[in-house]
Amino acid sequence: MIGHQRDLEAPVFETVLVPLSTGEAVPLRVGTIGTTLLTAATELGLADLVALIDAARITDDHGTLADIERMLARSSRRAGGAGLRRGVALSRFGVRSRPETHLRLLLARAGFPEPQVAPRVETPIGLRHPDLAWPQWRVLVEYEGDGHRTDSRVFANDLQRFDAFADAGWSTVRCSRIDLYSAPRRVLESLARRLRSRGWRSTARLRTGIPPIAVP
Q: What is the DSSP string of 35-70?
């Protein structure tokens, strides 16, 4: 836990009710979303700041963006203001995990067209929402953490999902933690081949040899 002391204009706090195991709810005074993110912008690298904004947006997209704008309108020249504006510009609604944010930022750095986040994909087993996808070329990318490997139910579900994507005419690139944080070239080159085979023509040279996302 890191303590902070900031001179910010009110309102910077709000009261939320926290449920207890007894069924009671107790009031807790916490920083607003805008306050929290402005403070975090002085401590986090850009990739993790964007991941935090993405996480806040998925629970309340309109409220999160509105509170950030209110805070920046009052404190844009304070420490963290410039970083927070940059983070908001890179943030997207619908991203469901920190690695998915990092993967999206990696693809942008490499020069790929911007994917849709968790789009609706009709498959023989019903509607599915892949992590990132390019519907016009029917190519998608899925990040798979260790839980996809160690949990037998998750693994069985993955087998069914990826067969369903293939049956629906989609080409899937699967990305592991090693791919994302240590050696991204395999995923980047595989994605480039899949997109090009489906008709994508890049106007700029892809940077498939870029270093991985640098995060703690």
A: HHHHHHTTTS-HHHHHHHHHHHHHH-HHHHHHHHHH
